[in-house]
Amino acid sequence: MIQPIRMPNQAFVSPPELVEELKPLGNEITCVRGTILFHEGDPAKGVYIVLDGHASLTMTTENGATALARSSGPGSLLGLPGTFLRGIYQLTCMIDQDSRLIFVEREKVLDFLRQRTDMCMLVLNILGTEVAQMPVHPVQPKRRASRKSVHGSAPSA
Question: Cα(55)–Cα(76) distance, rounded to whole angstroms?
C-alpha cells in the first residue's frame, strides 16, 4: 500500500500581500465541514482564500490510493496551480471544519496578474514551492466525472 506523502502546512501559507490584493476581487462564502470545493481533474473555476477554518487537499492514484495529502488553514490560496497553469484542478479539496473563504473567479485572477506583473513573482514562488514538495515521480491525477460545484453549476466536461 502506498503511504500518502504528507506535505508541511507552513509551506503553503500564501504571501499576505498577494492574499490582500486578491480579496477584493472575490466574494465571501461559508462552507460546512465535508463540503468539496473541487475535485482533481475538474475544470478550474478560480481560487479560494481561506479566512477561517481548514481544508484538506488530496491527490489519488488511478487505483484510488491517496498519493498526496496536506492541510491548509487561514492565509492559504486553494486551487492556484490549476487556476494559473493548466485550467484543471490537480487536487481534491474538502473542508475539514466550518470555514469562511473568499472565492475569486479564474478570469479575475488572470486579469489581475496581467495588470499586476509585480505579483507574478509571488505566484511563481508559491508554485515553485508546491512543485518542490511534490513526489520525485509525480502521480498523474485521475480524471473524475463532472460534479456539481460549490457554486451550484455543473462544470463542463
Answer: 9
Mean of all residue pLDDT scores within the chain: 81
Long-range CB pairs of 120-128 (<8 Å, 24+ gap) are: 122/14, 122/15, 122/17, 122/18, 123/18, 123/80, 123/84, 125/15, 126/12, 126/14, 126/15, 126/18, 126/77, 126/80, 127/80, 127/81, 127/84, 127/85
* Domains along the sequence of the chain with CATH: 9-133 (2.60.120.10)
The band of 74, judged by pLDDT with boundaries at 50, 70 and 90, is very high
Q: How far is CA 115 from CA 72, 82, 112, 118, 156, in A?
A: 28, 20, 5, 9, 28
Longest dimension (CA), the chain: 46
The predicted-structure confidence for 82-139, as pLDDT tens digits, reads as follows 898 779 998 899 999 999 999 999 999 999 999 999 998 888 888 877 766 665 444 4
Q: What secondary structure letter does DSSP report for 82? A: I
Q: Look at residue 1 in the predicted model and tell me its pLDDT.
A: 39
Report the pLDDT averaged over residues 54-76: 84
